[in-house]
Amino acid sequence: MSAFRFSLVLGCCLVPRVWASGAEPAPAGLVSRIKVVSDKAPDCTSLKSIAESVTRGCRTNDEKAIAIYNFMRLTHYHRAYPSEGTDIPVLKEINCYGWSLCGGLHAEQSALWRELGWNWRFVGWPGHTTVEAFYDDRWHYLDVFLKFYTWMPDPKNPGRRTIAGQDDIAADPKALLFDAFTLDKGRKVAYFRGNEFELFGERANWQAPAFLVCGDDLPGIADGVKKRSRAGSPEGWAGMAHATGKYSADVNLAPGCALTNTWDPSPDAWYWRDSKIAPCHTCGDKEIRNSPEKGPVAEPYFSADWKCESYANGQLSFRPDLSSEACLRSFAAVENVTFAAGGVVPADAGKPARVTVLLQSPYVLTQAHGSADGVAAFEVSTDGGKTWKAADLNNFTAPVKGQLQALARFTIKDRLKNLDVRATVQNNPFALPFLAPGKNTITVSVADPAALGDNKLVVTYAYRPGERRKSYEQLCLEGKEIARGHDASWDTKPVVVQKVFAARDLPATFDIDVATATDKHPVYPRMLFVRREVVAPNQKPLPLPKDAQEPKSGPGFELKSLPNPLLVGTQPAPVKVVRPVKTLTLELTANGFVSKPGDAATGDFLRWPKNANEKVESVAFLVGGELKGLPALKDLAAARLVVPAVRAHDKAPTKLGVTALQAPLAAGQAFDFGKLGDVVGSVAVPVQPADAATWSPPKEFKVDVTRTVRSVITGDTKFHGFGLRVVPDRGTDDGYTVRVQLPKQPKVVLEVDVYTDPAK
Questions:
Q1: Cis bond leading into 697, ω under 30°?
Q2: What is the dihedral of CA 135, 112, 33, 566, to 10 degrees?
Q3: How far apart are CA 33 and CA 14, in angstroms?
Q4: CATH topology for the 47-179+211-247 domain
Q5: Which of 112, 206, 518, 635 could cross-link with 631 by S-S, CB 3.0 to 4.6 Å?
């Protein structure tokens, strides 16, 4: 009599294992290592494949380091560490989670450096863990948590540059930090000086790398490297381990199995051990909207209800063809079961008859349910079949949540019918093989094509193409972010591409053309899902989405593409074109000083309380008028509000801000402070000693308001006037309650720089 035992198989689902005592296990029906790779996305099936695919096209080690940095930026956001109670392999975190804090992110970054043959060392700051890479005989610092790296002259190659290490920065913070970067106050990011998101001639430099995008600053980096302490080169940090261990990113399917990965979250289908809240990037879209390394890929997922980067889900499903005896090859184990009279039935009605399903994939299980007819009992095991617990087939989430694999055992009552098992998995959406605008080449392979037998491997992509009505040059002129969905839209109906492969067809490649209308600009498609399924001869693939359509092509469409986001920053900045300008002066109408209640204020000081409890009256100065004589948008070089002052605070500098009023001014009527508007520009007014004379004539302070004026020119903003106010900022005023005194009748003007030559 045959003996039966259970064995786990590296597979996404179900493999029958039936063998005689003493015989070696022999997989039946399993199709192993199913790979679906897009040439436009990282290959996240191993650390080696990530490093190789991400650095493809890089010519120097600096470029490779930046590509790895960009990959980490694309695939991760910062949030408290994912936890499993034991160390998490880096490869597993990349595929299943996609968030961590500094130590975890830098453990992953160093694991990828290791694949390139580089050494690494962790460096601790007060409250922050960093890591450096060693290549080209020196150390280099790239921080994917703070979103920062900097360049320095290459001491071995005069005239060239290399990424600086922390020792270099500490030795010369002025040159490598404060003189090297410029802060874009409107976008609230830093750029390398001379490599900003601006127009360089007729072209927008929209691929300028954005740094410190989540609110960190250069003084913080200077202080960190000053207080640094080295922590060696461990093979992991903060619960993230370089070693992959028993984890595998292989996708293995048996007949009737499908793995669908999506770019969307399912309600409450997240896994974060011991957390009571769902994973979410608390910085909102700061990391996306100005970042060319991540933003273009991520912006299609913005929507009215989008709050932050979070988790995404997929589904592991099993629906075997029970009308064929071959279905027995789709189970992990069978016991006292035979195929008779067109169905799966007990071989001996006096003994228990069981079939076992293996739920397994590279992604953690978060929910599970199923249905079947003819079942007497249902049990679940998460220890490889050593122990079993009775479970509710309608919902057996509790015992399997957080696992990579589980066994589901069905005791058959009479005849097994309508078996359908589905498990939700958690996947990192940006570690999936996404598509890009233009031509995408998809490569499909398996470990052994012969394992398919008479079955078919079906690969399905679903996405919603999009387009942008304005160019990056227009976005730049209008002061808009590169990746916030500005002037862009995505189709409501999905495009579906499905390919069916027999054993003889593999390995295979096919193209997916993501076209753009001839008169529009390309954007990344809004990915919906990628699916792999092994279909039995008499089965049909899973249903396609409603209203599925084929890719757009033909007259009126072109294969327009965008640059590889992983290579952002690897190229030198374009040469900036210096164009001649003339300056126009537009006079504005002074409306006067107003207090927070909206009434006219006495005195001529601008002041603002540091907090709601401070008993300091809020006083602003309002100016209005009409902006007549503004140039065409393409001819506007810059605009500045010129503010006169006669006295400043004697203890600390004052941050003087300009707001764009949200309501019109009316002579003799109170102004609603709630309509004062956001600060659109600011300038630091220096300390003036108490015994110093007032500035006479008044000293002029110029505040850049170019973006606001551009928005007025385009019609996106209606001009109601400007407000002048103090902006409490400990980084400027050291915590003092500061103020600025204006002349009794200040004359505030708008300077407008206009190009006098055509763009080149």
A1: yes
A2: -90
A3: 14
A4: C8orf32 fold (3.10.620)
A5: 635
